[in-house]
Amino acid sequence: MISWRCLLFLLLPLFFILKTEASDQLIFRYHECNQMLGNFTGGSAYQINRDTVLEQIYSDQEIDYGFYNFSYGEEPDKVNAIGFCRGDINPEECRGCLKSSATLLVDRCGIQKEAIGYFDLCSLRYSNDSIFGVMETKTSNYFNIKANTRADDAFNQTLLDLLDELKTVAADGDSRKKFAEKSVKVIDESSSSSNTNDTIYGLVQCTPDLSKQECNECLDSAFGGFSRWCMKGCLYLGPSCSVRYDNSSFYKTIVPVTEQPTAAPQPSQTLPPKTNTTSTGKGKGRKLKTAIAIVVAVVVAGILLVGICIYFERRRKRPEYTAEFEGQDKNEDEDEAEAGNNLKVGDLLQFDFATIRLATSNFSDANKLGQGGFGTVYKGTLSDGHDIAIKRLANNSEQGETEFKNEVLLTGKLQHRNLVKLLGFCLQRKERLLIYEFVPNKSLDYIIFDPIKRANLNWERRFKIIKDIARGLLYLHEDSRLQIVHRDLKTSNILLDEEMNPKITDFGIARLFDANQTHGMTKTVVGTVGYMAPEYIRHGQFSVKSDVFSFGVIILEIVCGQRNTEIRDGENIEDLLGIAWKNWKAGTTSDIVDPILHQGFNKNEKMRCIHVGLLCVQEDIAMRPNMSSVLLMLNSTTFPLPEPSEPPFLMQPKRALSIPLNEQYSVPTKSSDSGSGSQITQGSTSKSSGIDQ
C-alpha cells in the first residue's frame, strides 16, 4: 500500500496544474448588497439560516448541472439561495467557485439580508424574498473585455446571427440546463473572401428555472446593451442569464448547437480556426498528458485500495440488519450508524435524490402539502406522470432520524387498504426522504373540523370512515404478521383518498411487539395531547390498548365534529371526553352530535358509535375492548354493549371527580395488564419491551 507521503508527493504536481488552470478564469467581477430589505442582527435565526443555506450550496455533491437552489428556515427568517455556474465547467470547479462567492459575500455584505456576487464562472445570490423561477435583470452589468479592438460591420453582423442562434438553443433547454456555446468565422459579405483573422466564440446561458419565454426575454435584454458597452469582447452577467463573446477562445469545450453555419453555407466556417503548433509544443503536451494520466491512475488505485480495506473492515465488525427486525433491541447508537446501509425492505424502492428534487420542482413552496415535527411534506410528480407524496426529514431533527428509520422498517412490511402505502425512501448525504402514495383529499382533521368542508361528510361516510380506521388498526394489532402499536393515532394522521376512504399514516414512533408481549415502557413520552392514554402520559406504558384509547377519541371527534380540546360549555370549560360523559349520564347524548348530522336517519348508529367511543377511552386498560371486539360492536346492532366507566379528564387535572385524583390516574397492576393481554393474544403473559431512550 502506498504511504500517505508518497500519495502527497504524487498529488502535488496535479494540484498545482489544476489550481493554475482554475485560477485563470476564477475572476470576481462585482457584487451588490441590497440595503432595501434591511439588516439582520448578529447571531440571529436569519444569520444561522443564511450560513446554513450557503454551506448547503457549495457542499452539495449530488447535482452535476451547475444549478443549486436551496431554502432554509421558517418565515420570517427563511433564506432562499441560488448558485449558478457556467455550463462548461465541471461540478468540482463549480462548487469551488460558489464557496469563494459565499466567503466574499458574507465578508462584504455583512448583516444585509440580500446579496449577489458574480465570478466569471458562477454567480451566487441569497434573499429572504422568493427568487426561484423569477426572471430579474436589476443587478446585471457589462464588462468590456476587448476595449481597444473595434468591431467592424462584418463582425457585428456575424455576432448578431451567432447570438440569435445560441439564444434559440439555450431557451429550448430543459429544466436542468439552458446553455449553448459555439464559434464561427467572421464573414464579410461585401468581399469575395472571409475575414480569416477573426473567429467569434459565443456563450449564452439562462437559469434552468426560467420558462422558454423568460429566457428569451432575459437574453434579448442582455443583447440590447452590447453595441453601447462592448467591442470585440464582452461579458454580461445578470441574476437570470449571462452572455459572453470574444474573438479568442475562453470556454473549455465547444459544443455545437447546430450542424448549419450562421452565415454562408461553407462547411469549414462552423469549425474553430486551427492553431499551428511546433513539434516541441506537441512533445511537451504529450509529456504533460502522460504525467497527469500516471498521477491520476496512482491516486485512483490508492483510493480504491483504501476503500476496499474499509469496506471489509466494516463488514467484519458490523452484522447486517435483517429484514425480520432482529435488530429491534440494538443499541440506538448502533442503529444511527447503520442508517441507510441496510434499509432494503420488501418491495420498497430506493429513490435517487435528483429524481425527487426534479419531481418536486426542487422542493418548491408551491408543492408543499404540510409541515410537522418530522419535517415537510411535498407533492411530487415522477417522469411517468405518477403522483407521490414526499416527507422530507428536517436536517436538525435528531428524533426525526430515528423516526425515519423506524417508519421504513415497519411500514415497508405492511400492506392494507386502510394504511398509506410506503413506496420507497431516499438516503443521500444529510437528506432523508420517505416516498408515499399520494392521497389527494388531505387529512381527516382538515375536513371534519372545517365549518364548510365538514358538510361533505354525511353520516354514511363518517360511519364508514370509523369502521375502516378500525379495520386498519385491527390489521396492525392482530392480522398482520407483525404486531404494531401506532402510538400517535389522531385525525391528522388519517388521510382520505379520492373516494374518502381513510388511510392511517405516520408510523414514525410506532413500536413492534413480540408474540408474547402485552405492553412496553418508555422514558420519553412522545405523541399528541388529547389522544394519549393516561397510563402512557403518567408512566410511559403503552400497548395496543393505548391505540384503542386514541381510536375512541377519534370516534367522538367524528360524531361530534369537535376537537378533543378545551370546550366552553356555559360557564364551565371541559374537554370533549368530559362533555360526552356528562351527556351520556344525563341521557342527552344526541345533544353532542354534529348539528349537520341531525337531518339524517340512523340515530341508533350515532348513539352506538358514541357508546363504543366511551368504552374505548375508559381509564382501566382491562376494561377497554380490543379492536376485534370494537369492529363487532360497530357492525352488529344486536351485540350487547357493556356500561362504560368514567373516562380520564386529561385536560382538567383540577376537576373535582367522584373518586380521588390519585386513583383516577392509577396504573393497572401487572396482573391487570396481563388480563388485558388475554384480549390481545390469548394465553400471553406480561412482558416489557424495554425502555425507549
Automatic annotation (TrEMBL):
Q: What are the alphabetically sorted keywords of the record?
A: ATP-binding, Glycoprotein, Kinase, Membrane, Nucleotide-binding, Receptor, Repeat, Serine/threonine-protein kinase, Signal, Transferase, Transmembrane, Transmembrane helix
Name the residues that span the membrane. 291-312
Q: Which reaction does it catalyse?
A: L-threonyl-[protein] + ATP = O-phospho-L-threonyl-[protein] + ADP + H(+); L-seryl-[protein] + ATP = O-phospho-L-seryl-[protein] + ADP + H(+)
Q: Where is the composition biased (Polar residues)?
A: 262-273
Listed Low complexity bias regions: 670-693
- Topology term for the membrane: Single-pass membrane protein
Where does the chain bind ATP?
A: K391
Q: Gnk2-homologous domain: which residues?
A: 28-131, 137-250
User: What's any one GO cellular component for it?
Assistant: plasma membrane
UniProt subcellular location: Membrane
Q: Which GO terms describe its molecular function?
A: ATP binding; protein serine/threonine kinase activity
Disordered, as annotated region: 262-284, 661-693
Q: What is any one GO biological process for this UniProt entry?
A: signal transduction
Source organism superkingdom: Eukaryota
Q: Which protein are we looking at?
A: Cysteine-rich receptor-kinase-like protein
